[in-house]
Structures are given as C-alpha cells and as structure tokens.
Design brief:
Strand content: 5-15%
Number of domains: 2
Largest sheet: 9 strands, mixed
Distance between the termini: 94 Å
Radius of gyration: 28 Å
Oligomer: single chain
CATH class of the largest domain: Alpha Beta
Strand order of the largest sheet: 3-2-4-5-1-6-7-8-9
Order of helices and strands: HHHHHHHHHHEHEHHHEHEHEHEHEEE
Helix content: 40-55%
CATH topology of the largest domain: Rossmann fold
CATH architecture of the largest domain: 3-Layer(aba) Sandwich
Length: 450
Amino acid sequence: MNEELLLRQMPHSVEAEQSVLGAMLIDSRCIPSVIEELRGDDFYLDVNRNIYETIYGMFNFSMTIDPVTVLEQMRRNGVYEENRSRAYMLQLMDITPTAANVMEYVAIVRDKSLLRRIAETAGELTVLIQQGTDSAHAVLEVAEQKIYAIRQGRNPKGLEHISSVLVKVFDQLNLLAASDSEIPGLATGLHDLDMALTGLNPSELVLLAARPGMGKTSFALNVLLHAGKYSGKTVVFFSLEMSREQLASRLIASEAFVDGKRLVTGKLTDDDWDKVSLAAASLNKTNILIDDNPTLSVADMNAKCRRVDNLGLVIIDYLQLMQAAGGKSNGGENRQQVVADISRALKIMSKELNVPVLCLSQLSRANEARADKRPMLSDLRESGAIEQDADVVMFLYREDYYNKESENHNIAECIIAKNRRGETGTVQLQWLPEFTAFSSLERRHGDDEY
C-alpha cells in the first residue's frame, strides 16, 4: 500500500508534452497557436517546462526559434544541462514526425493541467477543513474563489513572469488603438465625466459618496441604464435599500422622461402611457440584473456575479448597509474595522471579476459644519480604508440643496477627489429632479461666442 502511495502521481502525459515541444521545434509556424493556449505551468515535467518557457520568452522578443537558438537561450537562462539538454532536444524532434496534430497534443496537456489544479485545490480544502479553524461559510467562499480562478484560466498561485504580462499590455494597447471609442472603459453616459475618468475600467473599485438626498442612487441608475443599453454586457445592481419594483419604476422614469411623481401615483396621461410602454420595451432588451436582498455580504455578491455570463459592471447601493462575511457582526465589534474589511473585499472582488465595481457610500455630517459644504475625502463615513482601497472616489454636491436661492439651480457637481488613472477635478452635471436623473450639462447660452 505504501509503495502505491509513493508511485501515485498527479495527472500528466509525458508523450503529449514532448509532442507539443517537438512540433514547436520542427515547425515554428505553430508556435503562436500553442502560446495562445498553454502556459509554462501547464507542463508537469521541469525539463519540458524549462524548454517551453525559453521558447515563450524568445517568441515575445521576436527571436529566431530553432533547436540551436533554443539551446543557446537555455544556456543563457541557466537551465541548460551539459550532458542532457542537447540529446533531449533531438529526442523531442525524433518522436514528433509532423506538427500537423499539435493542437490535439495541446488539448491533452491542458486537460491534464486542469485536473492537477483541481486535485491541488481539493487537497488544500481538505487541509483547511481538517484544521477546523474556519466556518463552513468561510471554507465554501475559499472553495468558490479557487474553482472560479481555475475556470477563468488563472493560476491560483498568482506569480506570473513579466514577459507574459507585457504581452497582455500590448494586446490591450492594440485593441484600444483599433477601437473607435474615445475612452477605454465602460461609458457612464455622462460625456464630461467619461472624459475625466476614461470611463469605468476593469478591476477598478469606484466609490460614489454623498449626503442623503443628493442623488447617489439616481446617479447609479443612470450609469446602470446606459451600460445596460449600450455596452453589450450584463450589468448587475445590488440594492440593499430599495426594492426591485422601486428601482424598476425609477429606471422607467429616467428612460421614458415621465415625471416620477405621476409614475408613483399612477396619474399618467395617455402620452405618459405611450412613453412608459416604449421605455419598458427598451428595458426588456437590456441585460440588467437586480438583487434587492438586504442581507448580502461581499462574498454573497461575489458568488452570484461569478455565475453571470458576459459581466460588465457591478453596482452596490450602498456600503454602510452591507454585512461582513459570515453574517451580522457582534455588537461590540468595531464598525470601522467591519467597513474596512468590506471595502477591501470589494476591491478584491473587482480584481477577481475583472470588471468595474461602483459602490455607493454615505458621508459623515462633518461637511455640514463647514462654510463650504463640498465633501472631502476626510468626510468618508466610518473608515479611511475606503479611501485607500478605492481606485476612484467621487462626491456628489448640489449647492441648491443647502441654499434654495442659489443661482446654480439644479446644477450638480461631481467632485473627483481621487483618480488612480488620471487627474482629480470637478465635473458639472444637470440634475433633473422630476425624472430623478442626471445628464450632461447643456450650454444653453452662447455668451462665449460674442
């Protein structure tokens, strides 16, 4: 029995690995196709992995690839074995008469690699369970994260050579150069804001904070509606405060340009009914998903989003209503620490899902005591960790909210207080109270032209 344990090996196919490498050496034309499908850690044997990674690096730098140049590069990389490498290279070419079937060999190597990762994950989970230090909920979250990483084709170990990262960067630059869009990220529908932020970008945590009544939810629904209609992606809205029906009514009001009060009371004109019908038809064509469960944690949201196909954006309304992973916290637990844990988990979620996560947040009352009531980063409620974790922090401010006689009637300021991709500053928006919506500020006066 002990001998069986010693002989038991992880799934792999020596023949398939050797055939892939042999095909790459005898016909370099197949190398681009192979590199699209395999990574170095897909090879089980060290000697095969070293050869593949050498070829991979040479390909990235457009070097000539043949047995002689590969051996020389292996010598420079310090993976050349004096009495073995040359003979092994000849063996690889000898057992591979043609490169015609290389993609079949690639499929076998990938399948065995996938089985190894599943086995490794199962082993790690077994150890975690046997330790008995984590709850079932925590172990389940770890399991889902690891399986999701495998499904996405990412290495759970997380280490990746800079050469492969550079390839991804150049691929992204080529896509941006070929695109007709002015911005690389997902558009919010508010042109000036899109120009300032370059859109909402993958893996970014975007925080929108304001005092109650400033229009946080309206802003979020604006972004949700535009992304749902024009991005071609599925967009998800987690509402911990309002019901699905309330949100749908507000989306209809924004889309149909029907007075929200008439929509709530049902006192609609014939013209309103026509607009509502058209708006509903338009919304039906979008991929907008809404969840109004008020007890969700970040882990719950992450798990739900992993199962969404073609995910493009996640919006959460709002941070202070969220629960820590594992349910409600103890009464004596530091709320600042809970919020810090939640904001960190949100940032991890945005990176893991590789989509922008727009999270709404309440502000403290600190700005109420100042003469200039415009929010600042120090006003973020309950935790400075939110400021640290977020890639973008925006505040909504309306002067006429505090001063009814203000000249800036229904003009909102979107204050970009933090922006890892670019500059900070203020973007003015038009507030449309009857539709509970925002729009780009229209310049109705041509004073500058005279």
